[in-house]
Specification:
- The protein starts with a helix and ends with a strand.
- It is 5% helix and 54% strand.
- The longest helix has 14 residues, at 2-15.
- It is built from 2 helices and 22 strands.
- The chain has one domain (2-435): Beta Barrel (Porin).
Length: 436
């Protein structure tokens, strides 16, 4: 940690003697949460969870005529995680969140190399996951082309974790490339994708073709063994469409998955289809309604029809209480999500967002039940001079199917399933201008 901070200070000092644009800014984002049914059904005898966490970032951006450089340090702190005068953090969360260079190649082409956020469209498949205090990043190389109405990205990634190889101290290996990082959350060994987007006056269309390669493994005596088990490849292909002729708007997603998940679990016929409509009644009121259908697993053993939205900002979809596709529901009964929403601008500095979502399974549960429940989400936002405040409250009105899905009998569940949070957001600008 000390070496990284010293390095940043040296970089800042050196930039004072160059001719370029330099920005140094930060972020301070404490959030407190009361969890009484967040993520799953809360048993009646369980005690609600309450905690405070803080995301702290220090970002440096440097731009010249030929390239841009960005560096972001991050720490995620849970209040009380360290005992008094402990010399190191308990959770080892201090990290370089982003470190990339974007080099101009001429005629609209560039290449972006390093640790970076990869986010497209509404973030359904690829997103920055900004709600999570740790966020999401990728170590990747992008070849990019962009003009006024068209963009094309070719992305490539190859991951390795040399620290997990016994006896390795050099950062390189002479033989083998088994990726020994935990494959949870669809952590990939390699990734290749093509993204294209075209814009017209009232219409936007994009296409994403994504291939992820996962390291296979076997478990022996509780330990994973990777050597000799090969890889699995999963393909995700689809489109995002936006039509905004005026006060009325339509947004659609259509994605399909095929290939294999980790350890050759065959994926056949998996899909995600979504359609959302919006209407702006006035400058202060906007309404929305939509439906999303995500396929679930009703295939034979060794196969699955279940779609998973991979690296999207899944907290944004299917309810803020994260009952689906946020580290869960990865090979389950799918989902049908019908929702309506309203956004009220209360004044120049505050707004209220209201959303109601009704959930059911895309397939039946073993009991034959499909209905899962209804969720209510409320978010109040207030901006002040130089900082902002957000307050949220959500409640799940579970049905019989939800108790069965989450494995908590209704008689054993708490009478109310809810979640409340408050978040302060500060983004100070320390330096902003040209260096001489």
């Amino acid at each position: 940690m000390k070496k990284q901070i010293i390095f940043l200070l040296l970089v800042i000092t050196a930039l004072q003697y160059t001719h370029a644009q330099f920005i140094l800014d930060g972020e301070f984002r404490p959030r407190t949460e009361y969890r009484h049914g967040f993520g799953s059904i809360m048993p009646d005898q369980a005690e609600p969870g309450y905690s405070i966490s803080t995301r702290a970032r220090l970002n440096a951006a440097y731009k010249t005529e030929t390239y841009s450089f960005y560096l972001s340090f991050q720490d995620v702190l849970t209040w009380g995680e360290n005992r008094q005068i402990k010399p190191v953090d308990s959770n080892n969360s201090f990290a370089i969140f982003q470190a990339w260079a974007n080099i101009k190649l001429g005629s609209g082409f560039s290449t972006k190399l390093g640790r970076q956020i990869i986010s497209y469209d509404d973030q359904r498949i690829m997103g920055g996951l900004d709600w999570a205090q740790q966020g999401r990043n990728h170590d990747a190389a992008l070849i990019q082309f962009k003009n006024e109405s068209f963009m094309l990205d070719l992305g490539l990634a190859f991951n390795q974790d040399f620290d997990d190889i016994p006896g390795n101290v050099s950062g390189f290996v002479n033989t083998g490339n088994e990726y020994t990082e935990d494959p949870g959350f669809f952590t990939y060994k390699a990734m290749q994708y093509v993204y294209l987007k075209k814009e017209w006056s009232t219409f936007k269309a994009s296409l994403l073709a994504l291939n992820n390669i996962f390291q296979n493994f076997e478990t022996e005596n509780g330990a994973r063994i990777y050597n000799g088990f090969g890889t699995s490849s999963l393909q995700t292909i689809g489109t995002h469409l936006e039509f905004t002729p005026g006060k009325f708007g339509l947004t659609g997603n259509a994605f399909f998955q095929t290939g294999d998940r980790v350890n050759k679990l065959a994926v056949k016929g998996a899909f995600l289809l979504g359609l959302d409509a919006s209407f702006k009644i006035s400058d202060g009121i906007g309404l929305g309604a939509g439906i999303e259908v995500i396929s679930g697993n009703d295939a034979d053993a060794g196969e699955t029809r279940a779609f998973f939205p991979l690296y999207g900002t899944n907290h944004k979809f299917n309810g803020f209480m994260d009952y689906f596709y946020v580290g869960n529901h990865a090979n389950s009964i799918g989902l049908v999500d019908v929702h309506v929403s309203a956004n009220f601008k209360l004044n120049d500095s505050s707004s209220l967002f209201v959303k109601v979502l009704n959930f059911s399974g895309e397939q039946d549960l073993p009991s034959g039940e499909k209905s899962l429940g209804t969720e209510l989400d409320l978010v109040y936002s207030k901006s002040f001079k130089g900082f902002g405040l957000k307050l949220g409250y959500s409640q799940m009105f579970a049905r019989d199917g939800m108790y069965e899905l989450k494995g908590v009998p209704e008689d054993d569940a708490a009478s109310a399933q809810n979640w409340a949070w408050a978040m302060l957001i500060m983004k100070p600008k320390f330096l902003n201008g040209s260096t001489n």
